[in-house]
Amino acid sequence: MMRFKWNKTTLIIIFWILFMVVDSLKKIESLTANDETLWLYHLPGYLIWILLTFPLNFLFNWSDKLSLWKRFLFLAGSSLLLGSIKVMLSWTLFYLSFWLLKNEPLKGFADFLSGITLFYFVEAFIISGVVLIVLFVIEVYNKYREQSLRNAALETQLAKAQLQTLKMQLRPHFLFNANNVISMLVRKGENEKAINMIAGLSDLLRMSLERENHQLITLEEELALLEKYLNIESMRFEDRLFIHYDIPESTRLAMVPNFILQPLVENAFKHGISKILGKAEIKIAAKKISERLQIRVFNSGPVLDSAKPLTRNYGIGLSNSINRLTQIYKSDSKFDLVNLNNGVQAEIEIPFYQKVK
């Protein structure tokens, strides 16, 4: 079922209509019995308030980039200014309307404006403040709704990433290759290695299934699962696969998206390691640069065809990873694939947030 999305302009107009109804009911006796000419002030005043709400809304949105106290002072000043403008416009319009409709002589315009009491300025300032409170409530609601939708999208992306990771780990050729290696080790009498590989495979599957459903985990936790996967692959490739880690201690508690490295390494084996017969390398590195975290996964093997668009090199796993980075960090993340020496390097750059011990 579709949900109606309230437009801010609609809400502003509804607010002023309700305000006009309530205010008129409160003043109906004085407006009819005492001085009916006050209708010439109040009714145009509501229209002026509606029109002035839009520049007030613009200033309210613009002030969002200011600090809390600066924003408060700026909006208080804006409220005072626009409230004063409203009072002057209302009474000017009242002066002209009274003169035209009643055709009665009035005192000088300057004298007329100077007679406006302080009460109307205070009233206008208070009403401007009420409008700002309404705008603030709308802003909080919109941010809450946006965050809820964003969290729902992130949960969906995480579920897809987990499912994709499990598919990678459970797909037939991975288990078939692992089973062949175990069988070979048993035939060669290397039972201890076979047992270690079986244990490693069990740990990998268990950790994948038990991984908490969190969007962000520490880099150290992410590497723990990845090492299980690489240990199995290193047994399959025997002595020709060399794995290097360059993970400074200062980066191990950095928060990273859950299951973000698995697709990169899987892509490295599929398009790089499996394509060469000689020595193969996997290098996983992390570095803190200012307030940014850079993660690099390098694999030896065929380089990318520079004549083709980079997106042609994105499989399902990499595409999901890029989408998740965008969902979590919006435009504050980077992903790239580059040719480097005799291989390809995947690079991720995200804001550096460290888990508190």
Automatic annotation (TrEMBL):
Instruction: State the Gene Ontology terms under molecular function.
Output: kinase activity
InterPro entries named among the record's database cross-references: Bact_2-comp_sensor_kinase, HATPase_C_sf, Sig_transdc_His_kin_internal
Tell me which Pfam families the record gives: His_kinase (PF06580)
Domain (Signal transduction histidine kinase internal region) spans: 161-241
Q: What sections of the protein cross the membrane?
A: 40-60, 72-98, 118-141
Name the keywords, alphabetized. Answer: Kinase, Membrane, Transferase, Transmembrane, Transmembrane helix
This one is known as Histidine kinase
Q: Which organism is it from?
A: Agaribacillus aureus
